[in-house]
Amino acid sequence: MKGKTTKGQYFLLLCLIMGLTSCTSNHITSSSIMPPPDPQNSVTLFLLDNYTTSHQAGARAANLIEGILIERGYQVVTDFKKHDSHIAQQLKIAKKNGSRFLLNGGVTEWRYKTGIDGEPAVSLQLKLIDVVTQKVVWNSVASSNNWGNGTVGKTAQLMLEEMLRKGPKG
Fold it and tell me: Which residue segment(s) compose the domain that 110 sits in?
């Protein structure tokens, strides 16, 4: 019987693999479903406000958001050179760009936790505002962490991909 693998050993290995690959923890809450992409309605995206001690966390998050939105078919207008966190000014610029929507928000966590594992942790909030009515049509708050072998960028991207497709009450 030496060297022979049993069904129990395969099952144990499968459980171990599933446990290790499912160690990302996401918590996402959304107010509604993100409006579907429409070639007639572009989205203006600014750098997100950075409420962390991590340098350029808002720029990093905005860059990931831009890529995800474009991949999903949204028309995205960005001006990452300017950072104006005043909503009135952002709405004015979005209207000037001819955008239907303004996407903004803030990053509240973008770091590696301290300790032996150094797990990546990300938290942020996004809102989509109708430029014409100036009403929030979609809002989402999310936080995520991953094992120590994950990166902040990958953790953020996976969370944002899920966040931008979530419906009400995530």
Answer: 24-163
